Structure formats: structure tokens, C-alpha cells
UniProtKB/TrEMBL annotation:
PROSITE patterns: FERROCHELATASE (PS00534). It comes from Commensalibacter nepenthis. This is Ferrochelatase. It catalyses: Fe-coproporphyrin III + 2 H(+) = coproporphyrin III + Fe(2+); heme b + 2 H(+) = protoporphyrin IX + Fe(2+). The lineage of its organism: Bacteria, Pseudomonadati, Pseudomonadota, Alphaproteobacteria, Acetobacterales. Keywords: Cytoplasm, Heme biosynthesis, Iron, Lyase, Metal-binding, Porphyrin biosynthesis.
Length: 334
């Protein structure tokens, strides 16, 4: 029963990230990948074609290989994946910023747990009749932001009394986001005896056909890259935009980070840094793929210094960014 039926808004905020397995064992990873890769926003193929490949081939072999990768980065103290640890920290730290205003801050994962449905039900039980959904993706893509919104509205289909909802398109060049990135980059560079010859801005890739069909993600990444170069005073050559995490046989957005790194080593470039501005939290794609796989690739091809610059995670400037995004979006409700 909603005790808050009058006009007085009670506000809930739901931070949503991608999702991650609950363990490093075969079945935990299989469950997670099966939900993720069955999402038609993510894999745009007919189910007749894709499900037999997914269930028969991908989910037979990939979970075992991924299990080894997740084990390398697993948070052993909390027995959780870093993506879950950081997202929870972000929400809990943010909550402290809003105690005066009685705004409920919750976090959810698009795939796996805690689910969007569970957290929306929780906010409903707290009488939140105004909910701001904040997908933790700085750059919009239908494969990430839109599928969060889909899931939110699918859940609301089961509500007789629906809350007012706001969503966020993106924050690709929001000044507070750029400031948080600028700070983490400069902080890491200050620790280095010799400055890198290149700082790669590495973003999660996307199949090229999605971009050709109208997904604005590539432009969104370019906006972030341009804003970062401007504040750091770097050229495109010094700070190139690259894409990582290719999956499947499709042609993906380029340039691919592995090709760029290999080319650098051929040119005799010996000192590089990599930052992944598209990720709000360190995860498999940064800690394992960049900091381990691409480091190994660079060093084994003759590179000398490889610096991985962490994501903004729960740095105070990341919390300021999230706080300001919330303040900006709930205006008119308070
Ligand atoms: C066609 C497949 C995929 C698309 C499209 C895609 C887009 C996309 N993903 C992220 C962020 C993350 N992806 C992560 C892992 C991951 N991504 C895919 C596939 C696609 N992603 C797979 C199969 C996996 C699992 C790992 C693997 O099998 O290689 C993660 C990390 C999760 C973790 O547990 O740490 C993130 C984060 C974005 C931003 C994006 C679109 C731009
Ligand atoms: Fe700092
Ligand atoms: Fe992905």
C-alpha cells in the first residue's frame, strides 16, 4: 500500500551496471553469459540461428576459459567480482550524500543479481513514487543503455500504480565526468619517471553493423575522446581512440587495440599508457583484458613500459559526478 499518495514525491535512484557472474565456477559463468548473450539488444541475430550456437557451442567452452580470467581479478575478501564490489561502493557512498534529502539510492545489474526487478520492487515497497534510473554507461548504446531501460519498463508492466520515471541518455562529455577522468589520468602520470609516448583511450567495441544501423555509440566515444584531449592538451596522435573486447566473427568498430599496440611496437614505441573511459568501474575487460592481456602483448613484442590507468570507480570525483547527475535529473521533483 502506498502511503505516499499525495503529491509529495518520494524519490528513488537506481544505478544500473551490466552484471557479472556470482562465482568463478562453470555454472555461475554459464548462467550469467546465457542471460547476457540471449539479450536481443546485444546479439542481433534470429533466435533460430543464435540459440543453438550459444547453448551448444559458446556456453560449452567460454565459461571455463572465462573462469580462469575471473579468478585472476576476483575480490577474495568480499568473494565478489570487482564490478559488483565497485558498483555497490558507488551506491553506498552516494547514499551518504543524500541522507538529508531522504532519497533512496539503490544499485542493480542488468544481467544476474541484484536484478532491476528486485530493486524496483524494493523502491516501490519504500513508497518511492518517483524513480530516476541511472545507467552507469557514459556513452549511449542500444546494447547497454537501451536494454536497461527495456528491463525497467518491462518490470513496470506488472505494476498497477507506476512511479514517475526518468532515465538518462548519456554523459559522454559531462564536465564532471571529464574532470574525474582527467584527475585519475594525471594522478597516474605523475607517478611515472618517464612519460608515455602514447595514451590509448580504449573503449568497449561494438559490431560495425549496429553502428551502421544507427547506434550513436561511436560518436559518443569520439565526444569523450575529444573532451579529454582538450583538457589534457593532447593531440589525436598522442591520445588515440581504440576499441577492445571484440566478440564473435562480425566486423567490429576499429581501430582494434591489439592491432594498434602491435603497430606501435613495430614503430619502436616503448612506453605507453592505457585508460578505459567507457567503464565506470574496473572489471574483467580492464583488469584482465587490458592490464594483463594487452600488457603481455606489448611487452612480449619489445615494449618496455606499460601503464594501466584505473577507472574512476569510487573516487570522490566519481561520486561528485554521480551526485551532480542525480541533482540535475531530479530537478522539478524536489
Ligand atoms: C556482441 C556482444 C557484446 C556487445 C555488443 C557488448 C557491448 C558492451 N559491453 C560493455 C561492457 C562490458 N562488457 C563486459 C563483458 C562482456 N561483453 C561481452 C559481449 C558484448 N558486449 C561478453 C561476451 C562479455 C563477457 C566476457 C567475455 O566473454 O569476453 C563487461 C565486464 C563484465 C564483468 O564481469 O567484469 C563490461 C563492463 C559495453 C559498455 C558495451 C557497449 C558499448
Ligand atoms: Fe585522487
Ligand atoms: Fe561487453
Amino acid at each position: 500500500m502506498n502511503n505516499n499518495q499525495n503529491n509529495r514525491p518520494k524519490i528513488g535512484v537506481l544505478l544500473v551496471n551490466l552484471g557479472t557472474p556470482e562465482g568463478t565456477d562453470y555454472w555461475s559463468i554459464r548462467r550469467y553469459l546465457s542471460e547476457f548473450l540471449s539479450d536481443k539488444r546485444v546479439i542481433e541475430l534470429s533466435s533460430w540461428l543464435w540459440q543453438p550456437i550459444l547453448q551448444g557451442f559458446v556456453l560449452t567452452f567460454r565459461p571455463r576459459r572465462l573462469g580462469h580470467s575471473y579468478k585472476k581479478i576476483w575480490d577474495k575478501t568480499k568473494n565478489k567480482s570487482p564490478l559488483a564490489v565497485v558498483t555497490q561502493n558507488q551506491a553506498e557512498t552516494l547514499e551518504l550524500e543524500f541522507t538529508q534529502q531522504h532519497i533512496c539510492i539503490e544499485w542493480a545489474m542488468r544481467y544476474g543479481n541484484p536484478s532491476i526487478k528486485k530493486k524496483l520492487n524494493f523502491l516501490k515497497d519504500q513508497d518511492c513514487n518517483h524513480i530516476f534510473v541511472l545507467p552507469l554507461y557514459p556513452q549511449y548504446s542500444a546494447t547497454t543503455t537501451a536494454t536497461v531501460n527495456d528491463e525497467v519498463f518491462r518490470t513496470l508492466m506488472g505494476y498497477r500504480q507506476q512511479p514517475a520515471i526518468r532515465t538518462l541518455f548519456s554523459f559522454a562529455d559531462h564536465p564532471d565526468y571529464i574532470k574525474a577522468l582527467q584527475h585519475t589520468i594525471q594522478e597516474q602520470l605523475q607517478l611515472l619517471a618517464v612519460q608515455p609516448e602514447r595514451i590509448l583511450l580504449s573503449f568497449h567495441g561494438l559490431p560495425l553493423r549496429y553502428v551502421k544501423a544507427g547506434d550513436p555509440y561511436e560518436r559518443e566515444c569520439q565526444r569523450t575522446a575529444a573532451a579529454l584531449r582538450a583538457v589534457l592538451g593532447k593531440t589525436e596522435q598522442e591520445m588515440p581512440l581504440v576499441f577492445q573486447s571484440r566478440f564473435g566473427p562480425d566486423k567490429w568498430l576499429g581501430p582494434n587495440i591489439a592491432d594498434v599496440i602491435t603497430e606501435y611496437t613495430k614503430q619502436g614505441i616503448q612506453n605507453i599508457a592505457v585508460v578505459a573511459p567507457g567503464f565506470m568501474a574496473d572489471c574483467l575487460e580492464t583488469r584482465e583484458e587490458i592490464d594483463y592481456e594487452y600488457r603481455t602483448l606489448f611487452l612480449s613484442n619489445g615494449g618496455k613500459e606499460f601503464t594501466y590507468i584505473p577507472c574512476i570507480n569510487d573516487h570522490p570525483l566519481a561520486i561528485t559526478l554521480l551526485k551532480n547527475l542525480i541533482d540535475q535529473e531530479i530537478k522539478g521533483w524536489v
